[in-house]
């Protein structure tokens, strides 16, 4: 007869999935309550446009557009989710729960969550012989403000030294120049509140490009990393799209691997 007992690895996955599901439900209810309060108990006014934007947003947890099977962890003010058409199977996004359009608008709590997620991901990939690259691209769209998010891509240690060179080398091709900045630098002052591309390199240093060209290539950072990783056919995320079952399997694998590195957000 078939052995119906759950294997230990699947028990871990099941527990992680249950925790993620409960956390997402709580976050959705909390955000919905905040939206209700911000409307003055349901009144009309200037909040309507923001609510409509959030409802149509792929990243707002309260939005019906969110694909919850991609979520692998939920913190206090940020969560982790796999992207659609990831560059590599463990390409991950750090996403603010609230709808903000730029890293400049981070609260102290959100900044803490992001730092904890970055540190946890760094520790996980360090054990796998990998470094990581984090990039944030902020654009200006007055009709539909973007929901800022941080793309995190693991890179084999042997390729980490090439990352900065490739960003700068490909930048010259697109007339994109980078300025080294300190981790504590004030982004609002450096960018004057405008669009920018910020890259955290594997060695812990940061480079910044202030975007002035309205035709800035949207896939620039992905193109750079595709070259570093020698996967040129994966530059366009749409060409890397897979089925929901495959996405679910990737998310389950990531959640299992990340479970022992999950930050403690109660500290």
Structural account:
With 267 residues, this protein is of the alpha+beta class. Helix content is 40%, strand content 16%. The chain contains 7 helices and 8 strands. It has helices at residues 8-38, 47-55, 108-127, 157-173, 187-191, 220-228, 244-258; strands at residues 71-74, 78-81, 92-96, 130-138, 150-156, 179-181, 196-200, 206-210. An 8-stranded antiparallel beta sheet has the order 1-2-3-5-4-7-8-6, with helices on both faces. A hairpin with a 3-residue loop joins strand 1 and strand 2 (78-81). Helix 4 packs across helix 6 (220-228). The chain is globular. The protein starts with 7 loop residues before the first helix and ends in a 9-residue tail after the last helix. The model is unreliable at 1-8 and 28-47 (pLDDT under 50).
Instruction: Give the averaged pLDDT, no decimals.
Output: 84
**What is the overall shape?**
globular
Structural class: alpha+beta
The gyration radius over C-alpha positions equals: 19 Å
Strand content: 15-25%
- Low-confidence region ranges: 1-8, 28-47
Amount of helix: 25-40%
Taking the sheet with the most strands, its summary is:
8 strands, antiparallel
Count of β-strands:
8
Strands across the major sheet, in which order?
Answer: 1-2-3-5-4-7-8-6
H and E order: HHEEEHEEHEHEEHH
Could you give the distance between the termini? 47 Å
Number of helices: 7
Note the main attributes of this structure.
267 residues; 40% helix; alpha+beta; globular; eight-stranded antiparallel β-sheet
């Amino acid at each position: 007869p078939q052995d119906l007992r759950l294997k230990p690895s699947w028990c871990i996955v099941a527990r992680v999935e249950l925790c993620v599901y409960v956390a997402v439900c709580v976050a959705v209810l909390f955000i919905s309550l905040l939206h209700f309060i911000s409307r003055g108990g349901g009144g009309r006014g200037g909040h309507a446009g923001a609510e409509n934007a959030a409802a149509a947003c792929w990243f707002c947890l309260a939005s019906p557009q969110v694909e919850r099977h991609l979520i692998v962890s939920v913190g206090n003010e940020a969560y982790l989710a796999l992207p659609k058409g990831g560059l590599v199977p463990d390409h991950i996004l750090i996403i603010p729960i609230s709808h903000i359009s730029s890293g400049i608008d981070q609260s102290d709590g959100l900044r803490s969550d992001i730092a904890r997620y970055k540190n946890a991901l760094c520790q996980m990939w360090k054990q796998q012989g990998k470094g990581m690259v984090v990039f944030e691209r902020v654009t200006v769209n007055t009709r539909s403000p973007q929901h800022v998010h941080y793309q995190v891509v693991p890179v084999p240690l042997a390729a980490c030294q090439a990352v900065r060179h490739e960003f700068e080398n490909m930048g010259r091709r697109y007339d994109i120049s980078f300025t080294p900045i300190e981790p504590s630098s004030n982004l609002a002052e450096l960018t004057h509140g405008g669009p920018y591309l910020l890259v955290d390199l594997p060695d812990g240093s940061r480079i910044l490009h202030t975007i002035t060209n309205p035709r800035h290539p949207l896939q620039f950072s992905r193109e750079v990393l595709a070259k570093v990783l020698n996967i040129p056919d994966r530059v366009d995320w749409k060409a890397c799209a897979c089925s929901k079952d495959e996405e679910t399997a990737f998310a389950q694998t990531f959640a299992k691997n990340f479970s022992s590195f999950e930050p403690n957000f109660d500290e």
